[in-house]
Design a protein that fits this description.
- The structure holds 3 protein chains of 3 kinds.
- Chain B is built from 16 helices and 11 strands.
- Helix content of chain B is about 40%, strand content about 10%.
- In chain B, about 65% of the residues are buried.
- Chain C is built from 3 helices and 3 strands.
- In chain C, helix 1 crosses helix 2.
- The relative contact order of chain C is 0.09.
- Strand 10 of chain A pairs antiparallel with strand 3 of chain C.
- The complex binds magnesium ion and zinc ion (ZN).
Chain lengths: ~475, ~500, ~100
């Protein structure tokens, strides 16, 4: 499982740390009352505060603080009862204040830990360095005009949580799993919608390489603003290869900020920085230190939902699921809830098979998420019930399920409508069996001569003759008895 | 109508209530006065039409028996650091060229909601950085007080235009902002009352920021009573300012008559500084005697870190300013000097838009926050600041209020000290310590210098104890009985 | 502390204020004087002293998570020296 880059001079490993920016799922911005909704017309969700008009002042959105604390608790991290907002000073077109309000020396959340489980590998702990709150910047559009950059401040001031991992990740896959895990946790908590397409989650990726066996870290490059899990994995792959090559051709990796170019499949240095960065952090004098009480934190802790790891453990112990199935089912809170609704009071393994097999397959084909599933958890449960009480066979159940996917109807209604109820009266089955045997004397003889395979062929014929509705167990019994006659 | 401009706010309020004159007449008299003293350059923008409209509205309210309060119909001047909706706001800087805010600062909104009549926006040191009004892009303000030598004096700064307007009887009162002495020092230089409330009393929302942890709006008037009346109308909790104090306002004017019998007046040893002119020391000694005569007890106290307040200030204030002024980049408002690249545009705009003193402070502030220097300068200064605040807390265990001179000299000649920033900074040596601790303080005109220029005495009270401050100030005002008038007024 | 012109150039760049070459020496002088003067703070013993974070002694004020502002593009753009199609515009930025 170890990810090794084979170089000319030996084997290299990659060292990765991530800074995941997760947008807090709030209605209003971190320090102003403007809306945060995605996709609004340019500069229509901008207050005078967000546009940094002279004399405008920030006032913190309490809900955002609560979400940051909640996320910290979800990352099993230390909550700092006193944290401080600082100004990170730099000039940029979409940074109207000339500084970003962020947290620096005293973040609201300290060290924590996240467990990732790659298929076929033992679960591994990845350290969380910190989580801090900060404002997002606006957006620069460079391709609207040959001479101008257009600036939209709708995102300016939107609340972000920056979740910083320790440099504990050792492969592109691990990084991908880590981001998925973070996304899963924030979605469980409801603190971020995790929507990477809309920029609600993105990551700065810190990459360095070292010879296998080395213990220290070498110089890292930071690849900014990577906005999908696939790109995160690709960027690590390409950047690691680039660094190995730099070392192996006698060069040195320089600490710098790079961008991932997905079209070219490579990272490139951001325009040679004319000005060295010096952010001149200092506590924002417009804001007081953020002081929380332990009761406040405890109250939030009491509202925490069951998180994926705990749910995973419970699914294994309570439902007897395999670690793999449990992992798949808990990845999304909605999936886990769907599964539990189906499994409650029923055969949990069968429920798991239907959800991860038939349901996921069908949803995939339609390009739907589980929340948009035409088959509700209640209806899928009812379908399992129909099988359990022999109302329909497993085969019919598959047909019924397909129709449920297409129509959204309850399985009972479909069975009723289409007359799919299983035939459990022996009379009609015996009649069908007699007819099939009478019509196929050669095959009947073969069976009697000891060719057991013929039984399967007869089963098929009888099922066909009954429109698939005959109870297969009964068919089997009656066939054996009659063929032996 | 000359008489109307000589009134105090309290007298004007009573006259309006009694119907002796109308708000429109009062405004008209002041609009004429503003015109007559135009050569003082106290105003950047005059708003006579708005003033008359507001005055007529006030008269209509009064006629209907619904006056809004003590400030209803009172013509005042607004330091051009307060954003005023629909009216040019410059901060005395080239970089805010043409900026017309679509919003109104909380303090001016409070005053207007109380019926106050805005005569115009007054001149100031650029971004409130200065003690002379000579750093304004709109040119220096001339102090209405004439010295024997006939040379023009500065009105002090940064609220020099406001002070000059009040002293010259061109406004019944004005508002200023005080970061290190910018209300009190011009008060002393123009023979007016300048009051800096406790940090957090008046909202900073809509006030162009200089140094956020220090900036505080306050009233500038001709009497202590007027300052109390104005503060009442300006102050109060504002949910839009995170550093605004969630406290109820006491009745400031009601405190004035209480006297100082039995009050303990602290005299800080460390304010006796080498090089302070005799006339300033003598006035201070006089002040001490006045308080004794009125039945107060004077007590020597020690504020050991006093001498470090000014250097501390000149680290903290520029640091905050360097960041606060980063928004003036030519993108969303104000001056834009086109450049080949965005960075070019930033550099050219800010080089042309900022004057020398602002540039100096932004650069000092940038330096003291930069990597490798933060601990030695900014962090160190914030620690010393803690000690300065602690000195005051210790002193106030023992005394009710502190008495000091306001400035180390009377108003100086326009153009002086411009080539020596530190000499200029020393103007605020007595006012800065209270700023560093966020305490309320007031300058009361108390005497004249040899040259016939006004001098002030300075009182400092514990945080949020403006009541005690006003009590002591009213007594001091009465004892000093300062009746001298400047040579140039609009009357 | 005496600042050399190289440092002054670096600060000027950080602060995005163009200082013409012939003004750099004088500015270095001025800034050095001011820094030299404030450095008297070094003599104050601040061991164990917490830096002041706020002169105001109070709890942090908070806002509810409700949309109360924004949707005022005309106001936001009214003072812009240059704008287009509801955007602010600046000289082209190359990343
Ligand atoms: Mg980062
Ligand atoms: Zn960040």
């Amino acid at each position: 499982m170890t990810y090794i880059i084979e170089g000319q001079t030996g084997d290299w490993e990659v060292v990765v740390g991530l800074e995941v920016h997760a947008q807090i799922a709030s209605k209003a911005k971190l320090f102003s009352g403007s809306a945060t909704e995605f996709g609004a017309r340019p500069n229509t969700q901008v207050s005078l505060v967000d546009a940094a008009m002279p004399g405008m002042l920030p006032v913190i959105n309490e809900y955002c603080v609560e979400q940051a604390v909640k996320t910290g608790l979800g990352l099993k991290a230390r909550i700092n009862l006193e944290s401080v907002f600082e100004r990170k000073n730099y000039f940029y077109a979409d940074l109207p204040q000339g500084y970003q309000i962020s947290q620096y020396l005293k973040p609201v959340v300290g060290e924590g830990v996240v467990v990732i489980a790659l298929p076929g590998a033992a679960p591994r702990e990845v350290g969380i360095e910190r989580l801090h709150m900060e404002q997002d910047a606006g957006k620069s559009l460079h391709d609207q005009d040959p001479r101008r950059t257009y600036v939209d401040l709708n995102r300016s001031g939107v609340a972000l949580m920056e979740i910083v991992s320790k440099p504990d990740l050792r492969s592109p896959e691990e990084a991908g799993f880590f981001v998925r895990k973070i996304r899963s946790i924030v979605r469980y908590l409801g603190t971020c919608d995790g929507n990477m397409e809309q920029g609600s989650m993105r990551a700065d990726v810190n990459v360095s390489v070292r010879k296998v066996g080395e213990t220290g870290y070498r110089t890292r490059a930071e690849i900014k603003n990577v906005n999908s899990i696939r790109f995160i994995m690709e960027t690590i792959e390409h950047e690691a290869e680039r660094q190995v090559e730099v070392y192996e051709t006698g060069g040195e990796v320089v600490q710098e900020t790079r961008l991932y170019d997905a079209d070219l499949g490579l990272t490139r240095s951001m325009r040679a920085k004319e000005f060295a960065h010096d952010y001149r952090y200092f506590p924002d004098p417009d804001l007081l230190p953020l002081v929380l009480s332990q009761e406040y934190v405890d109250t939030i802790a009491a509202t925490l939902p069951e998180l994926p790891d705990d749910k995973n453990a419970r699914f294994i112990s309570d439902y007897g699921l395999s670690p793999y199935d449990a992992g798949v089912l808990v990845a999304e809170r909605e999936t886990a809830e769907y599964f539990e609704t189906v499994a409650r009071g029923r055969d949990a393994k069968q429920a798991a098979n239907w959800v991860t097999g038939n349901l996921f397959g069908a949803l995939n084909k339609k390009g739907l998420t589980i929340t948009a599933s035409p088959v509700s958890a209640e209806n899928l449960g009812a379908l399992l019930d129909l099988m359990a009480d022999d109302t329909i066979s497993g085969r019919i159940a598959k047909d019924v399920f397909e129709q449920m996917m297409d129509t959204g109807k309850a399985p009972g209604a479909i069975v009723e409508e289409k007359g799919l109820k299983q035939i459990t009266d022996t009379g009609p089955i015996e009649e069908a069996v007699d007819r099939v045997i009478a019509g196929n004397p050669d095959q009947a003889r073969q069976y009697r001569d000891g060719n057991g395979k013929t039984l399967g062929w007869f089963m098929g014929q009888v099922m066909k003759a009954t429109g698939g509705k005959a109870n297969p167990k009964l068919v089997n019994q009656i066939l054996r008895a009659k063929l032996r006659e | 109508m000359t008489m109307l401009t000589g009134l105090t706010i309290a007298q004007a309020r009573d006259g309006l209530d009694k119907g002796d004159f109308s708000a429109e007449e009062l405004a008209g008299a002041h609009i004429e006065a503003v015109e007559r003293v135009r050569h003082l350059n106290a105003f950047i923008t005059e708003t006579p039409e708005l003033a008359l409209d507001a005055a007529r509205a006030s008269d209509a309210r009064r006629a209907a028996g619904g006056a809004l309060g003590a400030m209803d119909g009172i013509p005042i001047a607004i330091k051009d650091l307060f954003c005023t909706e629909g009216v040019l706001t410059t901060a005395g800087s080239h970089i805010l060229d043409g900026f017309v805010p679509p919003y109104e600062s909380t303090v001016t909104a409070n005053l207007k909601a109380g019926g106050a009549v805005m005569l115009g926006k007054t001149n100031l040191d650029e971004f409130a950085m200065g003690s002379s009004n000579m750093t304004s892009y709109y040119g220096p303000v001339i102090n209405p007080w004439k010295a024997a030598d006939g040379k023009h004096r500065v009105p002090g700064g940064s609220s020099g235009g406001s002070a000059a307007a009040v002293a010259a009887r061109a406004a019944l009162g004005a508002i200023g902002t005080d970061t290190g002495g910018s209300i009190r020092q011009p008060g002393a230089f123009t023979g007016t009352v300048g009051m800096k409330p406790t940090y957090g009393r008046c909202s900073r929302w809509g006030v162009v920021a200089f140094a956020s942890s220090l900036d505080q709006p306050g009233p500038m008037t001709r009497t202590v009573r007027d300052a109390a009346i104005m503060l009442q109308a300006m102050a109060g909790f504002d949910a839009k300012d995170s550093t605004s104090a969630p406290r109820d306002l006491p009745d400031f004017e009601g405190a004035l008559a209480s006297g100082v019998k039995g009050m303990r007046i602290g005299i800080p040893n460390e304010y006796r500084m080498d090089g302070t002119p005799k006339e300033v020391e003598n006035l201070w000694r006089k002040g001490i005697q006045w308080f004794k005569d009125m039945g107060a007890e004077t007590v020597d106290v020690s504020l050991p870190h006093t001498k470090y307040a000014l250097p501390t200030y000149y680290i903290v204030a520029p640091a905050e300013a360097s960041s606060n002024l980063a928004r003036y980049d030519g993108v969303r408002y104000g001056l834009r000097v086109p450049g080949d690249s965005l960075d070019d545009q930033y550099e050219l705009t800010r080089a042309e838009g900022f004057g020398d003193e602002v540039r100096r402070r932004v650069m000092i502030g940038t330096y003291v926050l930069s990597a490798g220097y933060y601990d030695a300068y900014y962090l160190k200064a914030q620690k010393v600041r803690t000690l300065i605040a602690q000195d005051f807390r210790n002193a106030f265990e023992d005394v009710d209020v502190l008495l000091t001179p306001t400035t180390p000299s009377a108003a100086f000649v326009i153009g002086e000290k411009m080539d020596d920033p530190i000499a200029m900074y020393l103007n605020d040596i007595f006012t800065v310590p209270a700023s560093m601790a966020g305490l309320p303080a007031i300058s009361v005109p108390a005497g004249l210098s040899r040259d016939g220029l006004p001098l002030g005495l300075h009182l400092i009270a514990p945080a949020f104890d403006e009541i005690t401050l006003f009590r002591a100030a009213a007594a001091l005002e009465e004892a000093a009985d300062f009746t001298a008038r400047p040579g140039e007024t609009g009357e | 502390m005496s600042l050399d012109t190289e440092t002054v150039r670096a600060i000027a760049r950080l602060a995005r204020i163009r200082v013409p070459g012939d003004a750099q020496d004088e500015l270095a002088n001025e800034l050095s004087n001011i820094l030299g003067w404030v450095e008297q703070l070094a003599e104050v013993d601040t061991d164990g002293v917490a830096p002041m974070t706020s002169v105001a002694d109070m709890t942090w004020p908070r806002r509810d998570d409700t949309v109360t502002d924004g949707d005022c593009r005309a106001k936001v753009l009214a003072n812009a020296p240059e704008r287009h199609d509801g955007f602010y515009t600046v000289p082209k930025v190359v990343e």
